[in-house]
Amino acid sequence: MKRDLFSLKNKVAIVTGGNQGIGKVVAGYLADAGADIVILDIQDASKTAEGIAEEYGVRTAAFTCDVTDPQAVDTCIKAAAEKMGTLDLLFNNAGICLHKDALLCTPEDWLKVINVNLNGIFFVAQAFGKYLTDHNKKGNIVNTASMSGTIVNIPQGQASYNASKAGVAHLTKSLAVEWADKGIRVNSISPGYIRTEMTGTVRQDWQDYWVSTIPFGRMGTPEELAGAVIYLLSDASTYTSGLDMLIDGCFTVV
Ligand code: NAP
């Protein structure tokens, strides 16, 4: 194997939702593979970014940004490019989950989840795609979808989340085809149940039920997603675009 196949050296990677959970852990792995890191999060991620810079000796930056605000996203992408000199990669990962039965979901509930999980993914991908094409650059995007875009989780009601993630997987394919001739690859990962701040606060009997239905007999960790993101962002996957990679301990296989 060529030694640098999975290297992200000399690349700048944006990670949305990178202040905690999957985004934070994967950002550390991208830095370990050589990438400089820009975190966009609704929370102030400057401490997280500083920690990654110290641990991996890469350049980092953090911008507080609500991905549902297209103008703010555009401003942050431009500011990130200005600060880092260039942008190459995007791990488009910010998302929220609402456990609420469809019959109880208010219009505000529904719109909030769709806005962050689907519209936000589009706004960031679009701003990044515009940056790349305006600068005649190639680049790679990995969106975070979910196995919930393929199956329906129980016992919790979460129709808004499931629909938003199915949308992310198909948006990924649509952008992959539209941007194929521009040298921009677009793929998604679809994690199963992963132990993070998002899932850790869910009532224990639901967590126990989930674990009892996963063939691997446990939830996954954010670390177990990092290899897939590095693969899809690196030159190890130059003929791969429009893929939705399920990483779920066999949950969707049975
Ligand atoms: P998490 O621990 O809640 O982290 C998500 C991060 O995104 C948080 O820092 C969050 O800030 C931020 N965020 C939320 N809304 C935002 C917005 N409008 N603009 C910018 N940043 C925003 O979640 P996670 O478990 O790491 O999940 C990351 C992604 O993986 C999500 O897209 C999620 O749907 C997906 N996923 C997770 C699992 C799982 O089991 N954990 C499974 C499949 C897919 P706040 O803390 O303020 O919300």
Structure, explained:
It is a single chain. With 254 residues, the chain is of the alpha/beta class. It has one domain: Rossmann fold (3-Layer(aba) Sandwich). Helices cover 44% and strands 15% of the residues. It is built from eight helices and seven strands; from the N terminus they run βαβαβαβαβαβαααβ. Strands 3-2-1-4-5-6-7 form a seven-stranded parallel beta sheet, with helices on both faces. The longest helix is centred in the middle third of the chain and has 28 residues. The protein starts with 11 loop residues before the first strand and ends in a 7-residue tail after the last strand. The mean pLDDT is 98. The site of NADP nicotinamide-adenine-dinucleotide phosphate (NAP) has 30 residues, from helix 1, helix 4 and helix 6.
Strand content: 5-15%
Shape call: globular
Listing every helix as H and every strand as E from the N terminus to the C terminus, the arrangement reads EHEHEHEHEHEHHHE
Name every ligand kind in the structure. Answer: NADP nicotinamide-adenine-dinucleotide phosphate
Brief synopsis:
Helix content is 44%, strand content 15%. It is of the alpha/beta class and 254 residues long. It has a single domain, classed as 3-Layer(aba) Sandwich (Rossmann fold).
Layout of SSEs?
Elements: E1 12-16, H1 21-32, E2 36-41, H2 46-56, E3 60-64, H3 70-84, E4 89-92, H4 107-134, E5 139-144, H5 159-178, E6 184-191, H6 197-200, H7 204-213, H8 223-233, E7 244-247
Helix pairs in contact: 1-2, 1-8, 3-4, 4-5
The chain binds NADP nicotinamide-adenine-dinucleotide phosphate.
